[in-house]
Amino acid sequence: MKACIAQFRSTWEDPHENLRRARAQVEEAASRGADLICFPEQFLTGWSPDAARHAEGLDGPLVQEMREMAATSRIHLLGAVTEQGLPKPRNTCLAIGPQGQILATYTKTHLFTPGGEHLHFCPGDRIATFSVGTCRCGIAICYDLRFAPLFRLYALLGVHCMLVPAAWPCRRMPAWDALVAARAVEIQGYVQGTTTTGKTPVEEYCGGSLAADPNGRIIARAGTGEELVVVEVDPDAADALRRRIPVQQDFRPDLYHRLMQEGDRRP
After folding, report:
1. Does domain 2-262 have CATH number 3.30.1360.170?
2. Which of 14, 32, 131, 222 could staple 227 via S-S, CB 3.0–4.6 A?
3. Of these residues, 41, 65, 117, 203, which one is catalytic?
4. Is 262 a catalytic residue?
5. What is residue 53's predicted lDDT score, i.e. its pLDDT?
6. Is 232 a catalytic residue?
7. 108 annotated active-site
């Protein structure tokens, strides 16, 4: 699978302009032979903990336009939307197939409480997978990178490549690099982090989207501006490593659970 990172500078709170500009990137990715293109978190508006103004259902006009873009270019597309919901909207990522069909939806599981995201959004409670040929993909969003158990669930389902749209700020870039590589080592699969660039009223971003292979080696990295980076993903390489070093098989979840229940009982 050829997976394209679309490092994107969002025009603040202007989803129609962002879709217009994204269309050119979708067309270019398809012309470069990419099977899939992934945009950053909340790329339609720029990341904000309070983005309810542009919330819509999955049958809304913004989603319909993304579906049309994917179908026109015959490419898989990952794009984010503020999804209408009760009592609050959801930070949701859609996987759209090359016929324009919605293959999977994932709502951000871990909301960024330091930024107040939990005050304005409802968290998700499900994981999401889909396939591109023989490559099984999973979805996580930004802050989810800090929670390894979520990624292990995907590994247990045989996911070869985790796609992580994000809005990761300049001031926390060392953690971004470390977490993408660490999650790849832990799941013995590819992890592709697609983040944004530019300055918004909320934060400053400096790009640095990247991909790591099943050994945690960084195999692609974007610069600081808008950029398309195509990454080669080999599901056979992930499967071979998992057979050689059966990490998931050697986990001891019952022990971990018991130890957490007992706590530290040393005198």
Report:
1. no
2. 222
3. 41
4. no
5. 81
6. no
7. yes
